[in-house]
């Protein structure tokens, strides 16, 4: 896998056992990654970060200079993002927005609202029926995804019956509702159809969404200003060294825009921006053999890092051997070449990674789980079994260098 940076590795070894598990975020790596993503996107493609992937304020601050805005999907996220990165334009999406959430969004001066249903459009029309600048609306549609693309996606949200977006059959009525409301201004279309796609697949989605949006607005003799083509850029947990091909994606979007001088595109990735900067550091508490298989129980578990349990994958990890063993009895160690890493929860679902090649893994060794910067801590069921919460450490930017190793024999 992508090796942890020296700063991450040093800190994972330096923290005393009682301070583990801990989330380590490499802010310098995040900033550099976001800068590369931004640089790969052509002019007239705006980059928004989908805050639900990881709303940690230090991450939002680090991303802010590289992003045009933030996508929020609840009143809670809206308030949180406004406090963490004040003055950055928020776009408000998500199904089931309450009238109170919409009112606070209007007070906060949101940049765009992504309308999810005809009912929501009617609520919006009523709540904006007063003085003031019209609210920019993108109509979110549940557009068909071609079967080939749907098969390659980890999490399809479009093309099949779903609670997300407006059904294409209601498109004309949706347009009429917006154009008939003095407080609303139709800016274009939004479509976040699937997650976990590669660049060619997402480009084909983008082309079909733009084509569909053009037909819709042409039918109503309206200009098409913007298309938000969503997030969903793939993160490959099985091949963590691979990266979404932002260069090819940016190039393809540039071609799409070349013949459309009046159009602006927006992308709103979450996972592919922050997954790589986060690490869950822990130590092996015990190693045991059960019916010819080796199990290592680590401090913490899926109540902190739920990602492998929800996605049904093995979380990529790196073992950091620790030399010292001070107990007078033999050190528990794996006898085979492959070890299943589990957590402290009393449920068979608490598995972080199966069959990890870790010959001789011992109690006291440390483990760094990677790709833990998105949909990790913030989606986990923290209170289940009442174990202590992990620590949080931020490396880089103004965080200063990591302290040197304090664990005797660390790294040997
Ligand atoms: C979750 C979500 C995103 C981000 O998806 P990723 O797979 O994390 O890139 C973007 N837009 C909408 C509407 C979403 O629901």
Short description:
Keywords: Pyridoxal phosphate. The protein is α/β, with parallel strands linked by helices.
SSE order and pairing:
Elements: H1 6-14, E1 22-26, H2 27-40, E2 45-50, H3 57-63, E3 69-72, H4 75-84, E4 90-92, H5 99-107, E5 112-115, H6 118-127, E6 135-140, H7 147-152, E7 155-156, H8 171-179, E8 184-190, E9 194-195, H9 199-219, E10 226-228, H10 246-258, E11 264-267, H11 271-274, E12 278-290, E13 293-298, H12 307-311, E14 317-320, E15 338-342, E16 351-357, E17 366-369, E18 391-395
Parallel strand pairs: 1-18, 2-3, 2-11, 3-4, 4-5, 5-6, 6-8, 8-10, 10-11, 13-15
Antiparallel strand pairs: 1-12, 7-9, 12-13, 12-17, 14-17, 15-16
Bound molecules: pyridoxal-5'-phosphate (PLP).
Report on the structure:
Helices cover 28% and strands 22% of the residues. It is an alpha/beta fold and 412 residues long. It folds into 2 domains: 6-24 and 276-395, Lyase, Ornithine Decarboxylase, Chain A, domain 1; 89-269, TIM Barrel (Alpha-Beta Barrel), CATH 3.20.20. Strands 1, 12, 13, 14, 15, 16, 17 and 18 form an 8-stranded mixed sheet that branches. Mean pLDDT is 93; it is low at 401-412. Pyridoxal-5'-phosphate is lined by residues 50, 52-53, 71, 93, 192, 195, 230-233, 268-272.
């Amino acid at each position: 896998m992508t090796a942890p940076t020296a700063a991450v590795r040093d800190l994972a070894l330096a923290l005393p056992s009682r301070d583990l598990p801990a989330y380590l975020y490499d802010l310098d790596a995040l900033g550099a990654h976001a800068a590369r993503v931004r640089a790969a996107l052509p002019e007239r493609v705006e980059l928004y970060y989908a805050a639900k992937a990881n709303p940690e304020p230090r991450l939002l601050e680090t991303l802010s200079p590289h992003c045009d805005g933030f996508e929020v999907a609840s009143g809670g996220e809206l308030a949180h993002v406004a406090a963490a990165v004040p003055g950055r334009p928020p776009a408000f999406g998500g199904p089931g927005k309450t009238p109170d959430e919409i009112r606070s969004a209007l007070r906060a001066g949101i940049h765009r609202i992504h309308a999810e249903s005809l009912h929501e459009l009617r609520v919006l029309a009523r709540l904006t029926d007063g003085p003031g600048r019209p609210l920019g609306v993108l109509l979110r549609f549940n557009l068909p995804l071609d079967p080939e693309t749907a098969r390659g996606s980890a999490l399809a949200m479009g093309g099949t019956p779903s609670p997300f977006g407006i059904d294409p059959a209601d498109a004309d009525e949706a347009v009429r509702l917006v154009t008939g409301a003095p407080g609303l201004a139709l800016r274009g279309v939004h479509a976040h159809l699937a997650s976990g796609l590669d660049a060619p697949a997402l480009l084909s989605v983008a082309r079909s969404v733009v084509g569909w949006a053009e037909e819709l607005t042409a039918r109503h003799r309206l200009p098409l200003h913007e298309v938000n083509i969503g997030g969903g850029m793939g993160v490959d947990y099985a091949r963590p060294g691979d990266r979404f091909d932002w260069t090819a994606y940016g190039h393809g979007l540039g071609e799409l825009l070349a013949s459309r001088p009046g159009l602006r595109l927006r992308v709103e990735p979450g996972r592919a921006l922050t997954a790589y900067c986060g690490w869950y550091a822990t130590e092996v508490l015990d190693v045991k053999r059960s019916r010819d298989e080796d199990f290592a129980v680590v401090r913490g578990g899926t109540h902190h890092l739920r990602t492998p349990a929800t996605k049904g994958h093995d979380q990529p990890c790196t073992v950091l051997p620790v030399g010292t063993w001070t107990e007078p009895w033999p050190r528990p160690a794996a006898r085979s070449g492959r070890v299943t890493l589990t957590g402290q929860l009393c449920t068979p679902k608490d598995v972080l990674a199966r069959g990890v090649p870790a010959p001789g893994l011992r109690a006291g060794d440390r483990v760094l789980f990677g790709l833990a910067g998105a949909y990790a801590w913030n989606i986990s069921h923290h209170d289940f079994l009442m174990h202590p919460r992990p620590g949080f450490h931020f490396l880089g930017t103004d965080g200063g260098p990591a302290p040197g190793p304090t664990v005797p024999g660390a790294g040997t």
